[in-house]
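#structure-requests
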Amino acid sequence: MTKQYSVADRYILKKIGKNIRVFRKQINFSQEDLAFKASIDRSYVGSLERGEKNVSVLTLNRVAKALNVSLDTFLKI
């Protein structure tokens, strides 16, 4: 069973995903590069960028560190 998110929740997840993609592309990282550096699965990076996953704060922090940006940067909506 998949979790049904509200419109507002989906907006937030998609915005965070878009932020991840923008910063990843700025440093010319592939999804695979980011996954390796953040110690997460490459397919999970794609799911995050599409806003399909409700990412934990700890995972988001690892992604932020891998991209060399602050955690609060991803949370700016």
